[in-house]
Amino acid sequence: MSLELLNQLENKIQNSVNTIKTLQQEIAALRQNNEELEQLINDSSDEMKTLRDENASLREDQQVWQQRIQTLLTKIGEITQ
């Protein structure tokens, strides 16, 4: 092989190595982003569960208050009759 062919081969190999390194860095960054997104999803899911539980509790409280008010209105109605 001539020196020129060896230089071309060396350049191609160096370009390939650089491309592989760049791709490895991109993969690492994508993995990090993926982990962050997964954590965000988990946090959001936990927050959603907390909000659903709180909503259910508030709905139960609302029903209790509605029943109390209805009972009081019934008693007031009985008094005025």
Q: Which structural traits does this protein have?
A:
single chain, 96% helix, mainly alpha, 81 residues
Description:
- By secondary structure, the protein is mainly alpha-helical.
- Helix content is 96%, strand content 0%.
- It has one helix at residues 3-80.
- It is rod-shaped and about 115 Å long.
- The mean pLDDT is 95.
Radius of gyration: 35 Å
The low-confidence parts are none
Order of helical and strand elements:
H
Can you give the mean pLDDT? 95
Q: What is the overall shape?
A: rod-shaped
Distance between the termini: 115 Å
What percentage of the residues does DSSP assign to strands (E)?
under 5%
Helix content: over 70%
* Total count of strands: 0
Biggest sheet record: none
Structural class: mainly alpha
Q: Give the number of helices.
A: 1
Helix-strand blueprint:
Layout: H1 3-80
Write a brief caption for the model.
The chain is mainly α. Helix content is 96%, strand content 0%.
